[in-house]
Amino acid sequence: MSDLHTELKKSIIEQLNLEDMEVSEIENDEHLFGDGLGLDSIDALELIVLLEKDYGIKLTDPNQGKEIFNSINTMADFIEKNRTR
Amino acid sequence: MSQNLFIRNSVVIRDSRVWRDGELIFKNETETTLSKFLKAIYKHQNLKYPKFFKMDSLSKLGYLGAEILINGEIQDKNTALVFSNSASSLETDEAYAQTMQDFPSPALFVYTLPNIMLGEISIRHQLRSENVFFVSREFDASLYIDYSKALFQEKKADNVLCGWVDLHNNDYDVFLWQIARSGGIDFNEEELKKLYLPTHE
């Protein structure tokens, strides 16, 4: 697991108040929404803010979100390719 | 239509303590933050509802009060919610305004109305019943009595869960009670004030 994967998991737990959840409990390929981690639409907005705040990525096309926020793996891939900080 | 209504039970959360039907059921021994106090109640009650941690403090107070009052389940889904407070959602409004200087927080924004608390309770218990949230300068017993009586009279509810859930500058004052057509104490101003005031002054 890369540092970015771990960092993302920590940020998600902290930003989304996933109390009682540990980094080790989130699988890299686990779905973040729906049956997986069970995030909701407000969490999706918080993830968009997180991308901009921590990695300088501004999502211009909201439709991209579904793909990017599929799992920790897809988020990390997207960040690696697009980060400005 | 004349009707007899009764206060079935009540909960008070105030000064780091929780009372149910007048009995002290939880007390925070050491001085702590509101956030830690609320989490301590959650743990003490052995609640399992992860969404709790996403709520703002006002909704947490309402949610916890309701859980303790109804002991985990609202049996009658036609239970209306009649709530009020004096500070509305000012605490969260201010916190949200702070984030606007940097990155406005969507998670805070959704709590910038006091009646969101009623939504949280309704979602938790799958209620599709009547609900209303008033903002009044202070606890006003007559407001609850008039509105609740009208709900029963109009057959809009079979039970009413009432609440005063106020929060400002980390000062909180919570009083919840249930009203029904039978059982308990007479539902009138005098009795309501007696239940609200004992530990308040």
Automatic annotation (TrEMBL), chain A:
<feature type="domain" description="Carrier">
    <location>
        <begin position="2"/>
        <end position="83"/>
    </location>
</feature>
<keyword id="KW-0597">Phosphoprotein</keyword>
<protein>
    <submittedName>
        <fullName>Acyl carrier protein</fullName>
    </submittedName>
</protein>
<dbReference type="InterPro" id="IPR036736">
    <property type="entry name" value="ACP-like_sf"/>
</dbReference>
<dbReference type="InterPro" id="IPR009081">
    <property type="entry name" value="PP-bd_ACP"/>
</dbReference>
<keyword id="KW-0596">Phosphopantetheine</keyword>
<dbReference type="InterPro" id="IPR006162">
    <property type="entry name" value="Ppantetheine_attach_site"/>
</dbReference>
<dbReference type="Pfam" id="PF00550">
    <property type="entry name" value="PP-binding"/>
</dbReference>
Automatic annotation (TrEMBL), chain B:
<protein>
    <recommendedName>
        <fullName>3-oxoacyl-ACP synthase</fullName>
    </recommendedName>
</protein>
